[in-house]
Specification:
By secondary structure, the protein is of the alpha+beta class. It has two domains: 246 residues, FAD/NAD(P)-binding domain; 151 residues, Helicase, Ruva Protein, domain 3, CATH 1.10.8.50. The protein has 15 helices and 20 strands. Strands 17-16-13-14-15-12-18 form a seven-stranded antiparallel β-sheet. Strands 6-2-1-10-20 form a five-stranded parallel β-sheet, with helices on one face. A three-stranded antiparallel β-sheet has the order 3-5-4. It is elongated and about 90 Å long.
């Protein structure tokens, strides 16, 4: 008789796990507490769905926290090339963009969700939406099914794929952590990762909507430089975001929680050192000596940054460039190379892209994704204490762990050679 596999959560890892288990011959029930599957997948990559990244495995894993080493086994069995081939086989054309980021060519995350749903259901997966699971049932130390909508459903294996605790409106409310904890699993403290930062400065907040590309990014903690990077910074109504900000946000969150002072320094002219920038300023001020300093600065900065530049450099915008003193030019140069933002906090966990912390990976078999505590329980995706940078890394981890769990939840020990 085919094994009965229950998958809790119809997100990226859950749909792939369900479809793969059914493809292996299992009888699969996919339970989703929301009305529709794939809600968080629909908003990933700003609605474009950054599926994966085309970097090599060794580099790929470097984009995760220390526990990312756990992913060596899942990636050895199902990685980016296999994932890309899989989606292409489903009719999803792919494109690779800056930084190796892979997207559907249509730019629509909904195409990915629809393709996964069609594939899984064509393999025989039965989807029940609006079916919240209350708890996982065990008997004699192994999986026996789930309790759902006041009824018990028998299952030989359960794949827990409920996602983290971010964007709760999509269904990721963190209930999977409590289910696992009830069964004896330990949970590492949950924190927001890939989260925008707060800056309590009205002048900075007035820059909302401004995106700065090719920007130097340095993090100072209690006056000491701890991080240096380069990339895109976006201003929001409450502070800053953007890829390079998100990449270092967890480090900043943890230092803020330790009551440390965190300053972000932006280098707005990273291609020019101090000497070259000073020469550039002198040339501009001589050539355009009759123009106002506001007008001259527009040749160096986006319009939205003119007012902050004048404010932080203590300059009258109507003063002519020819009247700018050496000391004033120095202030301009130093500000362009060191626009300092005092970080006052971060957006809540519910608004983070992913959850840091989660189920201890030491309690999961990386070759199968099966729990070492409860036989027949498989745990995948964001529930695990694994988090990566923005750029397609986290979705690949979700797909790889889901794929692996689907195969092993459906197979018998004899079929899998164990």
């Amino acid at each position: 008789m085919p094994k009965k596999v229950i998958v809790i959560g119809a997100g990226a890892s859950g749909m792939l796990a369900a479809g793969k288990a059914a493809e292996q011959g299992a009888e699969v029930l996919l339970l989703e507490k929301k009305k529709k599957p794939g809600n968080k997948l629909l908003i990933s990559g700003k609605g474009r769905c950054n599926l994966t990244n085309n970097s090599e495995v060794s580099e790929f894993i470097q984009h995760f926290n220390r526990e990312g080493r756990f992913l060596h086994q899942p990636f050895s069995q199902f990685f980016a090339p296999q994932l890309m081939a899989f989606f292409q086989s489903l009719g999803i054309e792919l494109i690779t963009e800056r930084g190796g980021r892979v997207f559907p060519a249509s730019g629509k995350a909904s195409d990915v969700v629809d393709a996964l749903l069609r594939w899984s259901q064509s393999n025989g997966v039965v989807l029940h939406s609006s079916y919240p699971v209350n708890r996982i049932l065990i008997k004699d130390g192994r999986i026996n099914g789930v309790r759902c909508n006041r009824r018990s459903i028998h299952g030989d294996a359960v794949i827990l794929a409920t996602g983290g605790a971010t964007y709760p409106a999509t269904g990721s409310t963190g209930d999977g952590y409590s289910m696992a904890e009830d069964l004896g699993h330990s949970i590492k403290p949950l924190r927001p990762a890939l989260v925008p930062l707060l800056v309590d400065d009205p002048l900075v907040q007035s820059l909302a909507g401004l995106d700065l590309r090719n920007t130097g990014f340095r993090v100072y903690v209690d006056g000491k430089r701890k991080k240096a990077d380069f990339g895109e910074v976006s201003f929001t109504t409450t502070g800053i975001g953007g890829p390079v900000t998100l990449t270092h946000s967890l480090f900043i969150v943890e230092n803020l929680r330790a009551a440390k002072n965190v300053i972000i320094s932006l280098d707005l002219k990273p291609a020019l050192d101090e000497h070259k920038l000073d020469n550039r300023l002198q040339r501009d001020f001589v050539k355009r000596h009759d123009e106002s300093i506001s007008s001259v600065l527009r040749g160096l900065l986006p319009q939205q940054l003119i007012a902050p530049a004048l404010h932080f450099c203590s300059l009258n915008g109507q003063k002519s460039a020819g009247q700018i003193s050496t000391a004033e030019r120095k202030r301009i140069r130093e500000w362009l190379k060191n626009f300092r933002l005092s970080i006052s906090g971060h957006r809540p966990l519910s608004e983070a892209i992913i959850t840091a912390g989660g189920i201890n990976v030491k309690e999961i078999n990386p070759n199968t994704m099966e729990s070492k505590i409860v036989e027949g329980l498989y745990i995948v995706g964001e529930l695990l204490d694994i988090h990566g940078d923005t750029g397609g890394y986290n979705l690949q981890a979700a797909f790889s762990t889901g794929w692996l769990a689907g195969i092993h939840a459906a197979g018998t020990k004899d079929q899998l050679g164990r």
